[in-house]
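User:
Hi there, any thoughts?
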Amino acid sequence: MKFIKNVIGSELAIFEEKFAAHVKGNKPLLDRIMRFIIRKKGKQMRPMFVLLSAKITGQIREETYRAASLIELLHTATLVHDDVVDNAMIRRNFFSINALWKNKIAVLVGDYLLSKGLLLSLEHDDFEILKITSQAVREMSEGELLQMEKARKLDITESVYFEIIRSKTASLLSAACSAGAYSAAGSTEDAAWFRSFGEKVGIAFQLKDDLFDYGADTIGKPTGIDIKEKKMTLPLIYTLQNCDKETKRKIIYIVKNQNTDKQKVNEVIDIVRHSGGIEYAQKEMEKYQTEALQMLDRFPDSEAKHAMKELVNYVINRTH
């Protein structure tokens, strides 16, 4: 990450100042919550993708900073709403908004962040960037609903799984890259190219998360969370498609009826590990990673291009 910070460090600092100004509330409670959100912000990978996409295709401009702020506002809004839906009390090792201020306020805060992002674009006539990001919000909702629908029957095929993660996870990262590219050059061709690039990175990113659940890396996150939540991820889908009928019935029964039993969940994890499910998901992840990196060959060598490659590899090789 050090090289990345050297390439866009000053621009990232400018973005942080602008983002803090954009989220500032004019009511005491709202302002307090916004300050809390800013203090507990994550690695800000999506704004990095916006800035680097812009720098590869042209120059970072005010429109680029607004695009980065819009993406971060939308991302934060979805996280706040997700915590309400999942009844999650912890976010990034801190209490979540709903844990501190209850669900009703958390929902309203998410709505506020979403409206701030929309208004930011409308006030500056950033219609193409708003179109790019609005499409991502729609796809995220569709992906989440499709996953919930399929979780009831545990009948997710590999093709449906990829449809879910493309919509649910990859769409916002895809929008970040596309919006960044468009903000710098106003080229719909570059925007489309980076949309595809970001989608591949986003899919690889989600596959990495799937592998975490099976302890594929040394991480702090407990294993088996996806199984407990009846989420069908690629290692499990591969296992169900390639095991015998008796093992398949056993896995489905545990996921449906014994998903809170730690010993039973660990039993499923062991079956997946021995079935080749982890290796299969790892290869798929590396395939999307390679395809994304190859897409950058379309552009001339530059510090921004090398920083983008480093960011892609960081996202895929992370240990948490």
